[in-house]
Specification:
The protein has eleven helices and 14 strands. By secondary structure, it is of the alpha/beta class.
């Protein structure tokens, strides 16, 4: 297995330090859309998609003006979409067999239309809430214009006591057509069907926690912290505050107790993304060095 860490469009909301914690009060913040490409034998899997080609080319029908112009301000560049980044790796859209979603917010599911053969895996509660469009917030965050793939959605119910246990988390779901090294971990709160995606890379577990948290400081087991603007954005977007905060606390406990076995990261922290990208480059370089034949010194003739 090989895991690639991709940033599938950068968002630049106003507020800088208030949103991303960087020094300086003026100017935009920088938030990433952290997605994964997982290479498996006979399978190529994406975890989330970020924004897609049609979001870049015609954003107004597909993205709500509230997020497009005010709250998120995505830097919509075609070369940043998942489909174009995969093309640079020599991967055609039809080669992606599966997409596993943390949730259906527009900035996580915008690229679904770019992968016409992929099965889409998500929790059933997320599918139901997105389709229902029950509140003004739901109608802004869940964008049916991005869902030509609905006929390929595979949704998984969560019932207490069912599913597997994973480091203390209940009802973890293995996925059809995929090996047990990839699983959905229910983390409701941000949305009612929000999930983390757990992946075992052969050495340890990676947990893409989606929007269960937004800022690396929230995983500090002793003194969790988050810039005030980003904290307010999480309040704005949450569907169940108690569940969201409970799951954040459970993730902190997971990091504290099992940090050597599980690497947790979220969708929008660019420093987390950068650290994982650097670690992946180092791992590739070390693997290449191990495969490179060693030169042996031949002593000169006597």
């Amino acid at each position: 297995m090989r895991v690639h860490h991709l940033n599938c469009v950068t968002m630049c909301p106003p507020g800088r330090r208030l949103m991303d914690g960087r020094a300086g009060a003026r100017g935009p913040a920088i938030l990433c859309c952290h997605c994964l490409l997982v290479e498996l034998p006979g399978r190529l899997v994406l975890v989330d998609t970020g924004f897609g080609l049609e979001d870049v080319h015609a954003p107004r029908p597909r993205l709500a003006p509230l997020f497009l112009r005010l709250l998120c301000r995505p830097r919509l560049r075609e070369e940043d979409t998942a489909v174009r980044q995969l093309a640079r790796l020599g991967i055609a859209p039809e080669e992606i067999t599966d997409i596993v979603l943390t949730h259906l917010d527009f900035d996580h599911a915008g690229g679904l239309d770019d992968f016409p053969q992929a099965r889409i895996h998500l929790l059933e509660a997320e599918r139901q809430a997105a389709v229902a469009q029950a509140t003004p917030l739901d109608r802004r965050r869940f964008r049916p214009q991005q869902w030509s793939s609905m006929g390929r959605w595979l949704s998984y119910p969560v019932h207490p006591g069912e599913g597997e246990r994973w480091f203390g988390f209940d009802a973890v779901r293995e996925l059809e057509h995929l090996p047990p090294e990839i699983a959905l971990v229910p983390l409701a709160g941000h949305t009612l069907g929000h999930a983390g995606v757990a992946i075992h890379d052969g050495t340890r577990w990676l947990l893409h926690a989606g929007d269960a948290y937004f800022y690396r400081g929230e995983m500090d087991p002793e003194h969790p912290s988050c810039p005030p603007g980003l904290r307010a954005y999480q309040w704005l977007m949450e569907k169940d505050r108690r569940l969201r905060l409970d799951n954040q606390a459970r993730l902190r406990d997971l990091a504290r107790v099992h940090g050597d076995a599980v690497r947790i990261f979220c969708a929008h922290d660019p420093l987390e993304l950068d650290a994982l990208q650097r670690a992946a480059v180092r791992a590739d370089e070390e693997a290449l060095a191990r495969r490179r034949p060693r030169l042996t010194t031949v002593p000169p003739p006597a």
